[in-house]
Amino acid sequence: MKKVWFIVNPVSGTSDRKVWVDKAVKKLEGIYDITVVKTEYRGHGHKIASDAVKQGIDVVVAVGGDGTVNEIGSALVGSKTVLCIFPMGSGNGLARELGLSVKSADKAIETLRNGKVAEVDYGTAFDAPFFCTCGTGFDAEIARLFVTNKKRGFWQYLKLSVKTFFTFKPIDVTLTVDGNTLQRSVFLLNAANIKQFGFGAYIAPLASVQDSLLDVTIVPPVNLFSALRLTFGMFTHRLHKMKPIETFKCQSLEISLPADAPFHVDGDYIRQPSGTFTVKVNRGLKVLV
């Protein structure tokens, strides 16, 4: 009998986690050896998933959003333990990328029972793993502010974004790719392993989670009209075709930022180290699709 651990983030997103998990346990009881564990603090999901790997657990189900998936997935890379996602976050970028339903408990349970195992890429930014995107600029500043925001969900994210837009200042960055150095003032700099941020907003429409490449998007400083135009481009999957956006693919790049610049990994704010650091792509996460 396969051993399955459900790791549940009780505060992630706005969906009803308990209904999905209870339904899964009821349907799968007797088919799998099931354990349900709730996270209690930031980083707890990584610790629990690390224990699952040590104990040879077959499948770990991440019940939460992209931040929860990041914590759990980062403990599973390079191991035989397979990740399954019950998407319960606000954006659910990786789940959407993998074609998983973000609305149906029955479809999530079906993926757990009969899904195929795929090995996908993940990135690292100063050794911090990411599975969706990482970067600096406006989205990273929103991630920093979102940490202290008690309310979650798309509309809260949108409200905070509109409020912050008028006070945000562009960030000066230096990039080194294949020996070439670029200096830019950016509204947003993003290195993507998948196509979208989540919510259906595509930051890198040409990205693939299995091509062993990062898709880098550079958005220069914008006014309100340009920001609205680019937002439309993200939701119509055309951002990469719009001027003055710069895009390119690479396996790794070096980034140098000001000491106070915000940085996010899979939508979660993280304090970036001073000086220059490397962002690169790797292969080695097994996931049910």
Treating each run of at least 4 consecutive H or I residues as one helix, how many helices? Answer: 8
Give the oligomer, counting copies of the same chain as homo and different chains as hetero.
Answer: single chain
The total count of strands amounts to 18
Major beta sheet summary? 6 strands, antiparallel
User: What's the overall geometry?
Assistant: globular
Order of helices and strands: EHEHEHEHHEEEHHEEEEEEHEEEEE
SS strand fraction: 25-35%
Give the strand order of the largest sheet, numbering strands 1, 2, ... along the chain. 6-5-18-15-8-9
Low-confidence stretches: none
Q: Percent of residues in helical segments?
A: 25-40%
Write a brief structural summary.
The chain is an alpha+beta fold and 289 residues long.
Describe the protein:
The chain is an alpha+beta fold and 289 residues long. It is 28% helix and 34% strand. Strands 6-5-18-15-8-9 form a six-stranded antiparallel β-sheet, covered by helices on one side. Strands 14-13-10-7-16-17 form a six-stranded antiparallel β-sheet, with helices on one face. Strands 2-1-3-4 form a four-stranded parallel β-sheet, sandwiched between helices. A hairpin with a 2-residue loop joins strand 8 (171-177) and strand 9 (180-186). Helix 6 packs across helix 7 (154-165). The longest helix has 12 residues, at 17-28. The radius of gyration is 19 Å and the shape is globular.
